[in-house]
Write a structure and sequence with these properties.
alpha/beta; Nucleotidyltransferase, domain 5; 13 strands; five-stranded mixed β-sheet
Length: about 400
């Protein structure tokens, strides 16, 4: 291997990465993917090649306290594995691009300053995304970096879909609905012409269901609406986030219970959702195995909110031609997909139980009025594509 790009998705306790070989003609080739997990506690590195064969799986002896330490570990592994190859660029997932970043950008120090200003809008993700960029600047200052935003795919939605009905003087400061999981939705939109061409240019609702969960309405392959809003707290119930909550509840937490802003932030981002309802776990797999009534209630609410959002997006789109499931739960949970489709049967959805048990790709019957699909997402490949285009490594597709 000669040239390669490194794709990073940095979180609070893990650093996920992919190594893509520079394409000679079409798309990037995945050489390896992995993560350094347990940052700050019990660090471990796990790496697999493009065929999912395990290359490395070991605990790390030295202390790994933050993104810089994790990148040092990654750099050592890259050197030992691809020592003769040239790193041509680093692509990053950055959760929030605000109103100003409507497409991926080559990062400069000035852009980094502007992105730091968005940290309050994505406190669980943005600081760690930016810490990885800063660490690369320090370690490899001459290697270009590209920031790819989870918000940018949603720019261009109808004005009413982006509006938050607060006073104009507040909204003009950037208070609007942004939407997230955009890299995932962009990848799904790019895959529909190949996987499900009959709905690719139609009205499609994509359910990105994982620990973070949202829905996106696509019209002609473009984002038309998203369940996420100003922050990644809005919309449907998630693993530890509540989704839509009456603003009066937040006022109650402050005014009646006397909680601090930090305490309220912790409740909303880390203690609510499936975990908050069940009191048991934020993991749908554990909740499905549990016989506790609270676990059942949490899953019932999860399915209820998703089904309700599907109905709302059908109304916004003026109908629906296809439903797509993606991400960890969407791609792997036969039971959750079954429950959602069963609750959405009024749309004319007929689930093919055998196809659903195989995880698709099409899981609806041929007679179903609405086709239903399972399409694995690939945010890393989407980042690699953007990185290649911005750095002039491949030509734009016509």
């Amino acid at each position: 291997m000669n040239d390669y790009a490194l794709i990073l998705n940095a979180g609070s306790s893990s650093l996920k990465f992919c190594v893509f070989q520079r394409p000679e003609t079409e798309d990037w080739h995945l050489e390896s993917r992995g993560q350094i997990e347990g940052i700050g506690t019990s660090p471990r590195i796990v790496v697999r090649n493009g065929e999912e064969k395990t290359l490395v799986d070991r605990r790390l002896d030295g202390a790994v306290h933050d993104a810089r330490d994790a990148l040092n570990v990654l750099a050592a592994w890259l050197k030992s594995t691809y020592g003769g190859a040239q790193l041509v660029g680093v692509g990053h997932r950055v959760v929030h691009g605000g109103a100003q970043f409507t497409s991926p950008v080559v990062v400069t120090q000035q852009i980094l300053v502007e992105l730091r200003g968005l940290v309050p809008l994505a406190p669980l993700h943005q600081p760690y995304n930016l810490a990885a960029i800063e660490a690369i600047f320090e370690r490899l200052p001459h290697v270009p970096q590209v920031a790819c935003f989870d918000t940018s795919f949603h720019r261009g939605q109808p004005a009413v879909a982006e509006l938050i009905p607060l006073p104009h003087e507040i909204c003009r400061g950037g208070v609007q609905r942004y939407g997230f999981h955009g890299l995932s939705y962009e990848y799904i939109a790019s895959s529909l012409p190949l996987v499900a061409p009959e709905i690719a240019r139609g009205r499609v609702i994509v359910a990105h269901l994982g620990s973070g969960a949202s829905l996106c309405a696509l019209k002609n392959g473009k984002s038309f609406d998203c369940s996420f809003g100003f922050t990644a707290l809005d919309g449907i119930c998630m693993a530890t986030r509540p989704g839509s909550v009456d603003p009066g509840v937040v006022l109650h937490l402050f005014q009646t219970l006397g909680l601090s802003a930090k305490e309220v932030e912790t409740i909303l981002y880390k203690k609510s959702g499936l975990l908050g309802i069940s009191g048991i776990s934020s993991d749908t797999r554990e909740l499905l195995r549990s016989g506790d009534p609270r676990a059942r209630l949490a899953l019932d609410y999860f399915v209820y909110r998703i089904t309700k959002e599907i109905g709302a997006m059908c109304a916004a789109l003026g109908g629906i031609d296809g439903l797509v499931f993606t991400a960890g739960i969407g791609e792997n949970s036969t039971e959750i997909r079954h429950r959602i489709c069963e609750s959405s049967a009024w749309l004319g959805i007929e689930l093919d139980a055998e196809a659903n048990s195989r995880n698709g790709p099409r899981i609806s019957t041929r007679g179903s009025k609405i086709s239903v699909w399972v399409i694995p997402t690939n945010e890393e490949l989407m980042i690699a594509r953007h990185t290649a285009l911005l750095l002039g490594l491949i030509e734009a597709r016509v």
